[in-house]
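Standup, Tuesday
Yesterday: got the pipeline producing structure tokens again.
Today: sanity-check two examples.
Blockers: none.

Example 1:
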Amino acid sequence: MKRAFDIVVSTVGLALGWPLLAALALAVRLDSPGPAIHWSRRVGQDNRLFAMPKFRTMRIDTPDVATHLLEDPGRWVTPLGRVLRRSSLDELPQLWSVLRGDMSLVGPRPALFNQDDLVASRTEAGVHVLRPGVTGWAQVNGRDELPIPEKVRLDREYLERANMLFDLAIIARTARAALSGRGVSH
């Protein structure tokens, strides 16, 4: 049922949202040099790598590491990128990954390919069996503010509690967090 829900929502979202997606892509291109979409190497279900699309929010010369590992991360974020990150609009292209089956609407946020500490902790906690999500239980409980052990604890809690009602509650909390911009540090 979860996969069917993912397919329906991502299909409808892409079909109805294409004008917004096109407008945002154009805005990103006009805001700074480089492509509109950044394809990030991420760790998916069972620790398999996949390419995850996001609207580009950082300069093209930004090092390929987690934002919290950058020295002075704010200097790498583009002017429009700040708005896209606070509103979570940069995540919209991930509906494509949901449709393809690389991601789900709800699950642990996919780690970057080089976040070995997060990947190891999730594997130890058994969370690696989940399909990563556009949003997740850890996302709605702190986003960028959470240390890795807390993210993994919340991801494990999601694994233990996962069901459609819980997913719908997480989606509702995500919408509130996206509208408020709460929990985004860069």
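Example 2:
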Amino acid sequence: MILVKTEAGQQVLKDRSVPLTPRQRSAFIQFDGKRSIDDVLGSGLGIGRDEIEQMIALDLLAPLPGQPVAAVAAAPAPAVSSGRSRQQRYKDAYPIATQLTGSLGLMGFRLNLQVEGTTSYEDLLALAPKIRAAVGAEKAAALDKALND
């Protein structure tokens, strides 16, 4: 998949409003619409997929327009195993999602606003990969359980 800087990403590149490590910034600059994720990962910068996922979750990077959206890393597949309704799942998962994104501080502000804008289970389920990318799989486990258990 080929990624490009979003409008917000272009602004961050100029004003450094989102703190990026030197490695992240170097990799971020390489996403010019010509290089694939694998090219950047293999460039020797020492950046991992999780850091790229975080930049995607922060809306700094996006897939090249016209390119199918594919996950950078595999996300757990939703499984409907309990008798809870979608409404109950949303009700259980929403506070977890707001807590996770709120704990990101300024870096997670936009993501937190997206969570607060959700109105249904489907909305929150669609946003879960971005949250997982931003906070890490371990911290997102409670959200995954609330959405999928």
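Quick observation on example 2: The first strand starts at residue 2 and ends at 5. The chain is about 55% helix and 10% strand.
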